[in-house]
Design brief:
Structural class: alpha/beta
Strand content: 15-25%
Number of helices: 13
Order of helices and strands: HHHHEEEHEHEHEHHHEHEHH
Strand order of the largest sheet: 1-2-4-3-5-6-7-8
Helix content: 40-55%
Radius of gyration: 19 Å
Number of strands: 8
Shape: globular
Length: about 325
């Protein structure tokens, strides 16, 4: 999600607990994407002059290659009853190693996962990407900011184990909200999961919202976030406090590679540093020079791949 749009939505949600403006702002943040944004969100988006053209071109090039591969469309039903869509590409040479990839907020399987599919396939692995709840072609009314996505992702891992057997090995990898999702799963994954890659994860959704609001010059964030959370509990049925990932990372069952751009002003680099420091399992921290949010792979693809190669060789 664009930083200024998110800031605008937070500001709109602060207008009042149940007034139309507040609800519209909240929906921009947490509900399934709508064609019509809140007025404030629309006006704020007009002031965003960030050039995403290079990143869009980078991903589109990857997607074109990915679309030439033989990919199976699959579905599972979440414990909430949402129909979730997955996209499984099996390595043509056969492999018992699977990569599960979690995408970021307001994205889908052709977003962040697309930038890594070729890398993993050429390493000889299988690749599963998904559309998280309320995104892409998956059903559901609200995003979970890792709360829903982490439990859904564990169900996807169970699907792989049931279908391909208990002797498979799994790598989990995610970017932004997907990185937080991977962190949230870290103390709950089955034994088949051997390592994780958390790229620019946040420590919690509320702390991320607080950072965005303050960096946009919004004051009185405590009451704003309390209001936002009250609406989320009412509409989405969960507490934003439950998106916090520190305890999961601290008690991780698997080694974690934390990746973060050192120019990230959306999800602060310090969040990954903190998670790295509290993780009690094997861990590494890779800070990418001059990379902004979720663009470490584009900024330094060669060295990102080298870091992945070394980490996988060490722990897989």
């Amino acid at each position: 999600m664009n930083k200024k749009i998110l800031a605008a939505a937070i500001a709109a949600a602060a207008a009042g607990l149940l007034c139309e403006t507040a609800i519209s702002g909240y929906m921009d943040i947490a509900a399934k994407e709508r064609k019509r944004k809140s007025l404030l969100g629309y006006l704020m988006s007009l002031g965003d002059h960030t050039d995403y053209s290079d990143m869009i071109a980078f991903t589109e090039d990857k997607v074109r290659w990915n679309e030439q591969q033989k990919t199976e469309n699959i579905s599972i039903t979440s414990e909430r009853g949402d129909l979730l869509k997955g996209y499984l590409t099996l390595n043509e040479n056969g492999s018992n190693i699977f990569v599960f990839f979690a995408h970021g907020c307001r994205s889908d399987h052709n977003g962040d996962p697309a930038n890594f599919m070729r890398y993993y396939l050429e390493k000889g692995y299988n690749f599963l990407s998904v559309d998280h709840v309320a995104q892409g072609k998956s059903s559901g009314g609200y995003l979970g900011y890792d709360y829903f996505e982490s439990t859904d992702s564990l169900e996807w891992l169970d699907y792989l184990i049931r279908r391909f057997g208990k002797n498979i090995k799994i790598i989990i990898h995610g970017v932004s909200m997907g990185g937080a999702t991977i962190c949230k799963m870290a103390d709950k994954v089955p034994d088949q999961v051997k390592l994780a890659v958390a790229d620019c994860p946040y420590t919690s959704a509320l702390e991320e919202f607080d950072h965005v609001a303050k960096s946009a010059g919004i004051k009185h964030t405590k009451i704003i976030l309390k209001t936002l959370n009250a609406m989320n509990k009412k509409f989405a049925g969960y507490d934003f406090n439950d998106t916090e990932v520190r305890s999961s990372v601290k008690n991780s069952k698997i080694p974690i590679l934390f990746v973060h751009g050192n120019k990230d002003d959306f999800v602060p680099t310090e969040m990954s540093i903190e998670l790295y420091e509290i993780c009690e399992n094997k861990k590494e921290l890779y800070l990418v020079d001059n990379a902004i949010h979720a663009q470490s792979i584009k900024t330094d693809e060669i060295n990102y791949h080298k870091k992945l190669d070394a980490f996988i060789e060490k722990y897989l």
